[in-house]
Amino acid sequence: MKRRVDSAILRNRQRVGKYRIERRLAQGGFAYVYQAMDTIEGIRVALKMPHQNHVSPVMLDTFQREARLVARLDHPNILPLKDASFIEGRFVIASRLGEKTLCDRLKKRVSFETALEFAQQMIEAVAYAHRMKIIHCDIKPENMILLPDGRLQLTDFGIAKIAQRTIHGSGSGTVGYMAPEQAMGRPSMKSDVFSLGLIMCKMLTGHLPEWPFDWPFPGYQTLKRKAHPELIELLRKTLEIRPNRRFKDANELLAAFRRVKGKALRYARDRRRAI
């Protein structure tokens, strides 16, 4: 049987306006992401395009909303929007091309110090979005881009919600990094906090906590050997099943993280010296 080829997939060296496609980076439920060369500016970019075979007014509205959201954001840990426009009938979102994703980086060992640095950067990004009344709703390592200078930038606000207090949604997000209440269609800023906690656990222990999220998680003993008790308590609070027991938003989490980070680094260093 011949394999059906999706005619919407762009080929290497195919042109879309001023962009020359170099390779496909990812494919999700809503869009393809390509690496491309901007032939005018002479730089490589990431292009996100809705699936042409499934384009609908609702989907286009989602992508245009993403473009408007990201255009409002100005923070060193949020991937800036380079361009958003219709090109040859396609809606195209162009952004800077990162070196790799945090997901790629986590395939190799991450030192305790590096994990804390990544944690602070991603919390800073989400805290800023929360100050702008934006809930990301899809925080995961694949949506965090690492630049050559070591900076981490959060991307993909495609299903983000503008927050009033708590937004009743449709359960959108990524299974594995989604808070329980978000899976039931009730995302809030506390849901983003939960997702951040899952990623921090993954970085610090090598294990991703899973439902039913009973404490202590796999890898707890490893964490206990190297992490300051206050850092462990911070992680436990981010991952409370009941949202009202978590940090209220990423800004409250950031304040707590800043208080404990120095202690955690000194504690880990002293424990290594004692071995």
Query: How would the global form be characterised?
Result: globular
Tally of separate domains: 2
Number of helices: 8
What is the CA-atom radius of gyration, in angstroms? 20 Å
Q: Which CATH architecture of the largest domain?
A: Orthogonal Bundle
Would you report the number of β strands?
Answer: 11
The overall average pLDDT, rounded, is: 86
Instruction: State the strand order across the main sheet.
Output: 1-2-3-4-6-5
- Approximate helicity band: 25-40%
Could you describe the largest sheet, including whether it forms a barrel? 6 strands, antiparallel
The secondary-structure class comes to alpha+beta
Name the beta content range: 15-25%
The SSE string, one letter per element, is: EEEEHEEEHHEEEEHHHHH
Spatial gap, N to C terminus: 61 Å
Instruction: Flag low-confidence runs.
Output: 1-6, 163-172
Per CATH, the superfamily of the largest domain is Transferase(Phosphotransferase) domain 1
Question: What does this 3D model show about the protein?
Answer:
This protein is α+β, with helices and mostly antiparallel strands and 275 residues long. The chain has two domains: 15-96, Phosphorylase Kinase, domain 1 (2-Layer Sandwich); 100-274, Transferase(Phosphotransferase), domain 1 (Orthogonal Bundle). It is 37% helix and 19% strand. It contains eight helices and eleven strands. The chain has helices spanning 57-72, 102-105, 112-131, 180-183, 189-205, 220-226, 229-238, 250-274; strands at residues 15-16, 19-27, 31-38, 43-50, 81-87, 90-96, 100-101, 134-135, 144-146, 152-154, 161-162. The protein has a six-stranded antiparallel beta sheet with strand order 1-2-3-4-6-5, with helices on one face. Strand 3 (31-38) and strand 4 form a beta hairpin. Mean pLDDT is 86; it is low at 1-6 and 163-172.
